[in-house]
Amino acid sequence: MRACGPLFRQASAVPWARKPPNQIYPLRHLTDILSPMSKRLVDIDDELLEEASAALGAATMKEAVNRSLESVVLAARRRRHGERLETMEGLDLDKPKVMAGAWR
What we know:
This protein is mostly helical. The protein is built from five helices and no strands. The protein has helices at 21-24, 27-33, 46-56, 61-87, 96-100.
């Protein structure tokens, strides 16, 4: 009678032990378990959350927070793009040669 039995195989005998990490889990599964989200413990004003959820049409607290953050980021981007257009910083839209080829 064998004391260790088939459950105690060497690591090299286990098929997945020899595979590189990217082959253990297919890529489609890595996006699910390694998403760029993290858990946070924060204090949130309940009335403000309720009002934001209603304004955004969010069904869950997570959705309300994510939509709120997205809204703030998009507003900041629009503001930066507006400032860029106002100053023409890094743009060639004020050059007649460029604008001559623009679609009208």
